[in-house]
Design brief:
The chain is an alpha/beta fold. Helix content is 29%, strand content 23%. A 7-stranded mixed beta sheet has the order 5-6-4-3-7-8-9, with helices on both faces. The two termini are 18 Å apart. Keywords: Cytoplasm, Glycosyltransferase, Purine salvage, Transferase.
């Protein structure tokens, strides 16, 4: 799998038909496309993964596996690519889906939180104030956790509205993303919340050192 990922991550070709005979956790990571547009973009684009029917299905299943048996009231996805995995996870769990939006897109009453994204740009995200009831257990989903700034802002919004993201004996929900890099922010999230990601341990150094 390691050699396959390293080779395919450099491939510009999209094969939506091939499914490996043995589907190890993370096999679909090889479907992701490398950045060809420069430093203002993320280093990998997972949207090719989402085009692959089995790849998307297995990715969502792997993200949800650590939460099997946990009480989850709602799934929240982060604008914008977190909407894809978040909505897929919500449909699989048969739960509602809450969109955490970039500022200026919601025409209802909201609560806002400033943050810095992976490129260091200052932004603001918002969530509607009427969607989360106190004590609701929220599974937060995004495409990627690089510096952790975006996810920490989303956690702050959920918790300010009374939702529960932190893991404990009675409320074991948390955070899910395709990759959680071992940055300072990424480590903080993994230390404080129950987390799930799709990168096998032997591939993690490659994703951290991109």
């Amino acid at each position: 799998l390691h050699a396959q990922c390293l080779q395919c991550l450099q491939s510009p070709h999209m094969d939506l038909c091939h499914v490996p005979a043995t589907r190890e956790k993370g096999w679909y990571l090889a479907l992701m496309a490398p950045n060809v547009k420069g430093p203002n973009y993320a280093w990998l684009d997972p949207s090719r993964l989402y085009c692959h029917p089995q790849g998307l299905q297995d990715c969502v299943a792997d993200l949800l596996q650590p939460f099997q048996g946990d009480a989850i009231d709602m799934v929240a996805g982060i604008d914008a690519m977190g909407f894809i995995l978040g909505a897929a996870a919500a449909a699989t769990l048969q739960k509602g889906f809450l969109a955490i939006r970039k500022a200026g897109h919601l025409c209802v009453q909201t609560v806002a939180q400033p943050y810095s994204d992976y490129s260091g740009r200052e932004k603001v995200m918002e969530v509607r104030t009427d969607a989360i009831a106190p004590g609701q257990r929220i599974l937060l989903v995004d495409q990627w956790v690089e510096t952790g700034g975006t996810m920490r802002a989303a956690i702050e919004l959920v918790e300010r509205l009374g939702g529960v993201v932190a893991a404990s004996l009675c409320v074991p929900t948390g955070v899910a993303a395709i990759c959680m890099e071992n940055s300072e922010g990424g480590k903080w999230i993994q230390e404080h919340y129950k987390c799930s990601h799709c990168v096998p341990p032997r591939l993690q150094p490659h994703f951290d050192q991109h």
